[in-house]
Write a structure and sequence with these properties.
The chain is of the alpha/beta class and 503 residues long. It is built from 14 helices and 23 strands. Helix content is 30%, strand content 19%.
């Protein structure tokens, strides 16, 4: 029988239960017998060494917090006896880690010839879907746009496009300053997204973010691909909208899939509903994928800044140069300052679901979360609403909230998103959103939610085997051979970061 626990790093003074360990059960670890002094839930931690009060609890080979009381071997380690050791805003020193660069990879990897079929857009961007997107400048007309999408979907269902979709949001009016600008930047990023062969931008006419003002942020656009409709100016906005959508469908139909190098892939990295296995299975698997894609010359984007707290120095020391290091420091400390401005505890994390799944402190969550970024150099740091411009691993400013951060990843240019989860979620963004379960149990329970099972890593398969299968699966998704669950279910949503005053 396989052992009922895993010790992630030989320096760890806790193990993770792969199945419930009952009180009185004895395990053998490092030639020592440890008897459970209480029931240890699946995914949770048990001490295997004496941990004096105030000293570090070690997991992943790193401190995940301090013991609130002396913890004896065999004790359950969780919120009752473990607390975060993180404090306030910090100063950092750049200590570059010995990490291979993309250029080094290319000297001993011969991946450049591998391709996938994608849609080449004007300007050299590549889409993995050929859809029509309807975007409203203001929340007042969500239902109008929803009706347009429904009518157009019925009218053009037999045409050569992958779907006609609208993404509702409540913003675009009664916003001021940076708050309004953030809304405009996110919408502009979506307008510019290559998965959309055509985009209809719909405005009301009297909003702060009216079409005239929005165009200032949008910048240059192709009038064949992007159309505008101001509904207050039309006698029948649905009739006019359908005419414009007909033109967009005709334009989108001129695109066909053609071989594209994997260096054209941009993939967003996200986790949600993490559990005690996230840092053992799904997140390391995605990290291996990120490494592989970067070796092909591709791009990955890691976000959720509050879930970098406690593991930020790992990312900082992988910065490509001093400038990227400084940008990473600002990314972290500016987000901490955002919490403090609102009189909130900087380290008020993990969530109740995380804790139920076995995660106790933010350090523990972050050390698992950041594994999605693999081990390559950080080549750039992007502000919220900005778009990726450098191939390789990028960091992006956005909160941990699932919908907000996934939307930010897509607006930054991600053609698909890898979403790891230990608890499960049905949602998806406007692009294929690949849900990756941490355990086989979740994958089997939520078959209509989960796309790939990283729990195979707990079932005896090696990382090399699983990551090879995963890379082939993602290539099939990018090629249009496979639809993700969110695509099959029609679950495509956006959310925009709200940080300012509403009039």
């Amino acid at each position: 029988m396989a052992q009922p626990f895993i010790q992630i790093n030989s320096q760890d003074n806790v193990i993770v239960a792969l199945q419930e360990i009952r009180r009185g059960e004895t395990i053998l670890i490092n030639n020592l017998q440890v008897t459970a002094l209480e029931d240890i839930p699946k995914g949770h931690k048990m001490a295997v060494q004496m941990i004096p009060v105030g000293t570090d609890v070690i997991k992943f080979g790193q401190s995940i917090g301090n013991a609130k009381e002396t913890i004896h071997p065999g004790h359950w380690v969780h919120t009752h006896n473990l607390q975060s050791g993180l404090k306030g805003i910090l100063e950092y020193q750049y200590q570059p880690a010995a990490v291979e660069s993309h250029e080094t990879y290319k000297t001993h990897e011969t991946h450049d010839s591998r391709t996938f079929p994608g849609y080449l857009r004007d300007g050299g961007k590549v889409g993995i879907r050929n859809e029509i997107w309807i975007l409203n400048t203001v929340g007042c007309i969500n239902k109008t746009c929803e009706m347009l999408a429904k009518l157009a979907g019925q009218q053009y269902k037999d045409r050569n496009v992958d779907g006609i979709h609208h993404f509702s949001h409540p913003y675009g009016c009664s916003q001021l300053g940076d708050d309004l600008l953030n809304t405009q930047k996110i919408l502009a990023g979506l307008v510019d997204h290559p998965n959309a062969g055509g985009v209809l931008v719909v405005g009301l006419g009297c909003e702060n973010n009216n079409i005239r003002e929005f165009k200032k942020v949008l910048g240059d656009y192709d009038p064949r691909r992007v159309k505008f409709l101001s509904v207050q100016e039309e006698n029948d906005e649905l009739e006019e909208g359908l005419k414009l959508l007909e033109e967009l469908v005709e334009y989108a139909e001129t695109f066909v899939r053609q071989p594209m190098p994997l260096s054209k892939l941009i993939v967003g990295l996200k986790c949600g509903g993490s559990d005690g296995f996230s840092g053992i299975t799904a997140n390391p698997l995605v990290g291996e994928f990120s490494n592989m894609l970067v070796r092909y010359g591709g791009t990955t984007i890691l976000t959720e800044v509050p879930e970098m707290f406690g593991a930020e120095t790992i990312l900082m020391n992988r910065a490509e140069n001093d400038a990227v290091f400084e940008k990473t420091v600002h990314l972290i400390n500016d987000f901490k300052a955002y919490f403090l401005r609102h009189d909130q505890v900087v380290y008020e994390n993990p969530s109740p679901g995380n804790k139920e799944g076995g995660i106790t402190t933010l350090e523990e969550k972050s050390l698992g979360c950041t594994q999605k970024g693999g081990t390559t150099r950080v080549v750039d740091v992007l502000s919220y609403g900005h778009r990726v411009s450098k191939n390789g691993l990028n960091l992006l400013e956005a909160p941990g909230n699932d919908l907000v951060s996934v939307t930010a990843l897509i607006a930054a240019g991600a053609q698909l998103v890898l979403f790891t989860t230990g608890r499960g979620t049905p949602f998806g963004g406007p692009v294929p959103t690949v849900k990756i379960s941490t355990t086989t149990g979740l994958s089997e329970k939520k078959r209509t939610w989960i796309d790939f099972n990283a729990g195979q890593l707990l079932d005896g398969r090696s990382m090399d085997e699983v990551k090879a299968d995963f890379f082939e699966y993602i290539t099939a998704v990018a090629s249009g051979e496979v639809q993700t669950r969110n695509e099959q279910n029609g679950f495509k949503e956006i959310a925009i970061f709200k940080s300012g005053v509403t009039l």
